[in-house]
Amino acid sequence: MSSGIPLTAQEATAFTARLREGRLPCGAGDLIDLITELETLKNVACGIQADASSAYDAARRSDQAAAGVPAARQGRGVAAEVAAD
Fold first, then answer.
1. Residue 67 pLDDT greater than 90, yes or no
2. What number of other Cβ atoms are within 10 A of residue 34's Cβ?
3. Residue 66 · residue 79 · CB < 8 Å
4. What does residue 31 show for φ and ψ, rounded to 5 degrees?
5. Which of the four pLDDT bands, split at 50, 70 and 90, describes residue 16?
6. Is 1 helix (H, G, I), strand (E, B) or coil?
7. Arithmetic mean of pLDDT, 55-60
8. What percent of the chain lies above the pLDDT cut of 90?
9. With 0-12 CB in 10 A as exposed, 13-18 as middle and 19+ as buried, what is 40?
């Protein structure tokens, strides 16, 4: 992930809403361009989601270690917390 401006959940929500509200273009060329860009968007989003999940896991383990949770128990439940609906 880049070192640019942090992404927020609110931004992702707003962009998702924009995609849902939009209508498809009419022309075949515009449709294939849209399909191509949406595929790129999907791949980028998956990468960001993986990075965020990994960072969340690391943060939770760090918090748990600071709270004295034994290493063998650190990170338990994180997968359920980040599971997609």
1. yes
2. 13
3. no
4. -65, -45
5. very high
6. coil
7. 94
8. 82
9. exposed
- Asked whether the predicted pLDDT for residue 84 surpasses 90, the reply is no
**DSSP secondary structure string, 22-84?**
----SSHHHHHHHHHHHHHHHHHHHHHHHHHHHHHHHHHHHHHHHTT--GGGTTTTHHHHH--
- Cα dihedral across residues 47, 33, 31, 10: positive or negative: positive
User: Which of 37, 76, 46, 75 lies closest to 59, judged by CA?
Assistant: 75
Evaluate whether 57 touches 49 at the Cβ level (below 8 Å): no
- Rounded Cα gap, residues 78 and 7, in angstroms: 21
| Average pLDDT taken over every residue of the chain | 92
| Distance from C-alpha of 13 to C-alpha of 4, rounded to nearest angstrom | 19
